[in-house]
Specification:
By secondary structure, the chain is of the alpha+beta class. It is built from five helices and 16 strands.
Length: 300
């Protein structure tokens, strides 16, 4: 994701220019490389759909954006925040925002910075679009046997939204997670009430991510990430779809643990955006065992 400026144009075309800035940030191209927006958003959308199709992607309308849940990019047209006019409040023109996460929050708002970080559930959404690949082929991943690192931190929380408790040693249970953690007890914020869901036993995050955030003035401690295992020296993103061991405990990486507006509310504000694609890993625990600080983490 990149920062982009609003392309030049008239005030009448501000909404289309704001949408262009969001689309350029998703596709990581200079906004000037996009077809230049019309003042009319409807016409601009047609041009952008053609441009995206030439690059293997599409712009898909979202039927029910208020209830939309998808850990990926989507662009919403929302009512602008009200402004003061003398002694009364007046509605501002519609603006475009970029949303991410499940539940989703605003990570880019080029026309109205006051909306940055808000949950999309708090916005008056007029229309919305997901940016999606046209190619559903799942390519086979290469071997990651040389991936290795170590455990730099361990933490559990006994209940949803409860403070994280740091540990020196934790007991892992197959199909559940770490003893004493809310997800092992089925009491996490996102725990399923209809049976076990893959990827909810254990969460990991790389210490290097927190180091980089601290270096840029966005300090976040391990407990604030609400992840179970802090690793060092291993690319946790590369463990998606692969089996690995933490000490003697066998695990399987399921998917990235993307940030969401819920985490931003508990540990932010302002951490949703810097953790996009760096929020860690969701994994299943396949065998019982003990995990200690300093234990090796290695891909199989």
């Amino acid at each position: 994701m990149i920062d982009v400026e609003l392309p030049p144009g008239s005030a009448a075309g501000a909404l289309a220019r704001g949408f262009a800035a969001c689309l350029a940030s998703v596709t990581e191209v200079p906004v000037t490389d996009l077809p230049q927006p019309d003042e009319d958003l409807a016409h601009a959308l047609g041009a952008w759909r053609t441009w995206l199709a030439e690059h293997g992607s599409g712009l898909v309308p979202i039927a029910d954006p208020v209830r939309f849940q998808w850990a990926g990019w989507w662009i919403a047209v929302v009512a602008g925040p009200p402004a003061s006019a003398g002694d009364r409040r007046v509605d501002c023109a519609d603006v475009a925002v970029l949303a991410f996460g499940t539940p989703p929050g605003v990570v880019l708002s080029p026309q109205a910075s006051a909306l940055l970080g808000l949950a999309t559930a708090e916005l008056r959404i007029r229309q919305a679009y997901a940016v999606a690949s046209l190619d559903p082929v799942l390519h086979r991943q290469s071997s990651a046997a040389d991936l290795h690192g170590s455990v730099d931190g361990l933490a559990v929380a006994p209940a949803a939204e409860a403070p994280m408790r740091l540990l020196e040693v934790a007991q892992a249970r197959a199909g559940r997670g770490l003893e004493g953690d809310r997800y092992a007890a089925g009491a996490g914020t996102f725990s399923s009430h209809a049976g076990r869901r893959p990827g909810y036993d254990l969460t990991l995050i790389a210490a290097e991510t927190l180091d980089e955030m601290a270096a840029t003035g966005q300090a976040l401690d391990f407990a604030g990430t609400r992840r179970n295992v802090l690793t060092r020296g291993i690319d946790v993103n590369a463990l998606v779809g692969r089996r690995f061991r933490i000490g003697d405990v066998l695990c399987e990486g399921r998917r990235l643990c993307e940030p969401c507006v819920h985490l931003d509310r508990l540990s932010g504000p302002g951490i949703l955006r810097p953790l996009i694609h760096r929020g860690g890993l969701r994994a299943d625990v396949l065998t019982d065992g003990e995990i200690r600080l300093g234990a090796p983490v290695r891909a199989l």
